[in-house]
Design a protein that fits this description.
By secondary structure, the chain is mainly α. It is built from 7 helices and 2 strands; from the N terminus they run H-H-H-H-H-E-E-H-H. Strand 1 and strand 2 form a beta hairpin. Helix 1 runs antiparallel to helix 2. The longest helix is centred in the first third of the chain and has 17 residues. The radius of gyration is 19 Å and the shape is elongated. It starts with a helix and ends in a 5-residue tail after the last helix.
Length: 160
């Protein structure tokens, strides 16, 4: 995340133009790619989510003609999604690819794909709750893992 902030700062110092086309090209190439690949890629703590969001918020605020808009209006005007929405979309697409054998299932003991006649594809999370006395951090990791969160997003989609 620090690299993304540094890169955003560098872009603003080096490039004098603030027009939409150039700024979006620079942002998506150099900043958003770092945010997508950051160690806190799929944050579940509000503080981490806000830190990632703040980088995108400050970059989009510098674009010519969008300075007076709020964050959500800027995203709509630029035709981009929030970073959290991008992560949710990625999870849905990755589960779809698992279901169609395009990518390997990273955790076959945790995720099971079922093909139901009435409901189409459905994903079952095979991870239970942590048993016995367990640290809250372990419960949090299980609850916020890819297997737990992605299943909910995927199963919320309407059947085709």
């Amino acid at each position: 995340m620090k690299k993304a902030k540094t890169m955003a700062s560098w872009i603003l110092q080096v490039f004098k133009t603030r027009d939409r086309e150039h700024m979006m090209t620079l942002y998506t190439t150099y900043v958003r790619s770092l945010l997508d690949l950051s160690p806190v890629w799929s944050p579940h703590q509000i503080g981490d989510i806000m830190k990632l969001k703040s980088v995108q918020r400050s970059c989009t605020a510098k674009i010519e003609g969008l300075e007076e808009m709020d964050y959500w209006e800027r995203l709509k005007a630029l035709g981009i999604c929030s970073l959290q929405r991008r992560r949710e979309r990625y999870k849905i697409l990755y589960l779809w690819k698992i279901a169609h054998d395009l990518v390997p299932n990273p955790s076959p003991t945790a995720i099971e794909i079922r093909r139901l006649v009435k409901h189409g594809l459905r994903v079952v999370r095979k991870i239970g709750k942590a048993r016995g006395k367990c640290y809250k951090s372990v419960h949090s990791l299980i609850f916020n893992s890819f297997a737990s969160t992605a299943v909910g997003f995927f199963n919320a989609l309407p059947a085709i």
